Amino acid sequence: MTIHGRIENGAVVVEGPISLPDGTEVTIVVRAAGGQAGDTMLPHERARYLAALAAIDGVANENPGDAFRGADHDSAIYQ
Question: Which residue from 26, 24, 6 is spatially nearest to 14, judged by alpha carbons?
Fold first, then answer.
C-alpha cells in the first residue's frame, strides 16, 4: 500500500482517507518531490534488485516453440 502525504507543521498529513486501524505501525520513506519509486532505493537494495533481474534473465526459455499461445496455457499445465 502506498499512502501519499506531506509534512505540515512537523506532522505527517496524508492525502485522503485511509482505512488502517489505530496502532498500525507504518514506515515512512522520504523522497524528493517529483521523484520516482526507483529513486527511493538504497545502493545495496538497487544492487540486489539488479542481481535478481539478471538471474531471471538467465533462466532458460522453456517455451515449447512459436506455436504456443497464451490460450494454450491450461492445456500445457494440466495435461
Answer: 6
Identify residue 65 by its one-letter amino acid code. Answer: G
Alpha carbons 62 and 43: distance in angstroms, whole number: 33
- The amino acid occupying position 28 is I
Residue 7: beta bridge partners?
A: 12
pLDDT tens digits, one per residue of 26-49:
888 887 665 555 557 788 888 999
Half-sphere exposure of 56 (CA within 13 A, CB side): 6
List C-alpha distances in Å: 19 to 2, 3, 23, 29, 79: 12, 11, 12, 19, 44
